[in-house]
Amino acid sequence: MLSIQTFGGKVIENLEKVIVGKRQSVELIVIGLLCQGHILIEDVPGVGKTVLARSLARSLDCTFNRIQFTPDMLPSDVTGVSIYNQQTNQFEFRPGPILGQIVLADEINRATPKTQAALLEAMEEHQVTVDGETHRLLSPFMVLATQNPIEYEGTFPLPEAQLDRFLLRLKLGYPSITDEMRILGEQQLQHPLSLLQPVATVDEILRAVEEVKQVFISEALKRYIVELTTRTRQSSDVYLGASPRGSLALARASRARAALLGRDHVLPDDVQALAAPVLAHRIIVSSAARLRDLSSSRIVQEVIHATPVPGGDFSPSANGK
Q: How confident is the model at residue 152 (pLDDT cuts 50, 70, 90)?
């Protein structure tokens, strides 16, 4: 798995030229890339959500499209539209911005639920259907969506089905004083994003994605993952727990983290480190728990503490593989 470690290291190093002091968030972005999963970046304005998404696109030799969501946006503004050509007497498909490889869905929760739903088919099936005609999306395909907290005026909460399509949810948070001073210095003359060059080709990305699928995960760890997601459904603080899609996502992300750290097998540490980013946004907290100011991330942490961790050797050789 050294090749994936080298690949991931190059991308992380490139992103950190722009994103200062957010190593964990940058690593989560690369894990999402290795899984070909979509990522939801949720935080207050001005902490670098859009810059992080643009930095990833610049780091990869992929096409990049940006969708700025607004309340008056229509689904056809996302997927595209068929227009009648009078010269050829035929309808021609004009692709929307979703037909890219790295797609930034900026302020996704400012769009109405109807427009947000236009992303579902693209995110899950890597295709869009317009006027009965299906159009396949390019590979790799990844949606990086940003949203402000729903308490902000003029925002709409994402539907549960939409949230479940995101592999990971992360928050950047405010930088430290030292990091913020460094940002001021680096952006005095020009933005570091303007100097960023691609460090990975499409073939390298697709090869890394396939290699991640070969990372070994033992039966004991598969059971551990399923027990974690099952306990989120059984918690008295939860109205709706994580679905089986959450178990699949946690297994995929754990494989990617193991490969990124140079291992050919998953450890319990990988599962525990990614449980909250993968599962928390798939949980609907009960009304009583919300009154106690209990967050979904805190519930996942409590589930981790309450679930016995399997022991033993998790390598392929110890498991007869």
A: low
pTM, rounded to two decimals:
0.88
Please name which of 305, 169, 283 lies closest in space to residue 236, comparing C-alpha atoms: 283
Say if residue 157 is in the same domain as residue 198: yes
Question: What is the torsional sign of CA 150, 122, 266, 24?
Answer: negative
Q: What is the CATH number of the domain that holds 258?
A: 1.10.8.80
Q: Is the per-residue pLDDT at 251 higher than 80?
A: yes
- Under the banding of pLDDT at 50, 70 and 90, the label for residue 313 is confident
With a CB cutoff of 8 Å and minimum separation 6, the contacts of 94 are: 80, 81, 82, 83
Torsional sign, CA 230, 235, 241, 246: negative
Phi, psi dihedral angles at 66 (to 5 degrees): -120, 135
- CATH code for position 173: 3.40.50.300
- Looking at the fold, whether 204 and 240 belong to one and the same domain comes out as no
CB 80 within 8 A of CB 94: yes
